[in-house]
């Protein structure tokens, strides 16, 4: 019966079938995303405030120009999102989490090296080293019972 109909009458049937298939795939994809967010509540991106605060702080310390600020903001957004993802993904495996965070930090430093001038990069490394290493007492009796 369909073969007797002109081609333009058969097209709506094909379009209807295609639309139904696409709707089914779309519903399945939506359900998978919903499951992902149920496993990991919140959004996968860091807050804009968090990214802006980190970038502004770095801008003040390193005296960034506008282009550097924009580039570093994008890199900071990726770093913060990836850090959160690693923390969540490897929460039950501290050794793997530490390794992944170290790898991310290395990639971050490489990206900063592409954006910052050599003097800014040196200052950046000094700031990072200071943040990682706790201040040591200058006198043997400081900070103790001595």
Name the descriptors.
146 residues; mainly alpha; 2 domains; 5 helices; 0% strand
Structure commentary:
- The termini are far apart.
- Helices cover 75% and strands 0% of the residues.
- The chain has helices at 7-39, 48-62, 66-89, 94-115, 118-132.
- Helix 3 (66-89) runs antiparallel to helix 4.
- It has 146 residues and is mainly α.
- The chain is globular and about 60 Å long.
- Residues 28-40 have low confidence and may be disordered.
- It folds into 2 domains: 10-39; 48-132, no CATH class.
- Residues 1-31 form the signal peptide.
- Keywords: Signal.
- Residues 44-57 have a biased composition (Polar residues).
- Residues 36-57 are annotated as: Disordered.
Ranges where pLDDT stays below 50 over 5 or more residues in a row are: 28-40
> Number of domains in the coordinates?
2
The biggest sheet, with number of strands, parallel, antiparallel or mixed sense and barrel status, is: none
Structural class: mainly alpha
Rg, Å, rounded: 26 Å
Count of helical regions? 5
Mean pLDDT: 76
Helix content: over 70%
Question: DSSP strand (E) fraction?
Answer: under 5%
The separation of the N and C termini measures 101 Å
Number of strands: 0
Keywords: Signal
Region (Disordered): 36-57
Signal peptide: 1-31
Biased composition (Polar residues): 44-57
